[in-house]
Amino acid sequence: MRTFPLIALALFAACGPNRTHPDRDAYQPAEVVPLECVPNLDGVIEATELKTAFGVPVSYLVNPAGGTRPVDVVGAVNPQGQLVWDYAVDYADDQVAKLQAAAPAGKWWASSFPAAQFTTPLDLGGRIDGVYSNDGSNLLLLGYASSVESPPEGKTLVIYTQPVAIFRFPLQAPKEWISVGEVRNATVRGLPFAGRDTYTIKVDAAGIMELPDLSFTQALRVRTTTLIEPSVGASIVRRQVGWVFECFGEVARATAPDNEMNDDFTTAAELRRLGL
User: Domain map of the chain by residue range?
Assistant: First the structure.
């Protein structure tokens, strides 16, 4: 009897009747979810273009606490006639601060601000919560409080008798307003406090903001001068210049040392820039 090599037997064993492969559907990619906000670069920021995103960390490059940074808040005009603020210098000692908005629910101070819609830290260390609402026409600062009820430096709870309008929509240049926050029966670092905070806010220019990791066209320059008048003690003048962009919010901020008198200050006690 003739025998086949084992390899041939293996091949025959693998053979069988023709099988019809099933038709398979073509791959369908997941639906692309449209972005909630897309900049239209019209130099105008509507309330809908500054929606609060809860739980989304935002990273800022900042100088170390106690240090300073040289700044040019005036800017320069490029050959195309555009105003440019060049903040793209990469400082080796920059640090990263991560900030994010949160809902008021669960905060120890929540019952003191029944109209609150969200909170974000006022300071980069996250020690003081700013408490806000947005009524569609204004971004309102209702007051501020220590992030925990009993910090080592003492509790802070400041409620403005009338909210302060930080932004009046639409934001566009030129635009200017004054908003006053009266403070009564407050607590600052565990001590009784009363006084008045007067905010003078100017949206006075639009241009290109150059940062180390990003570049923004049609950023709006917003100058905020706050006169802090406590019932006891000397008044303080605080100046800051921020740059705001559609859908992103504030992308950079330079804060002068207290009682700086020059609107176009050249040294910042704090420089924060959106970055990695």
Answer: 47-274
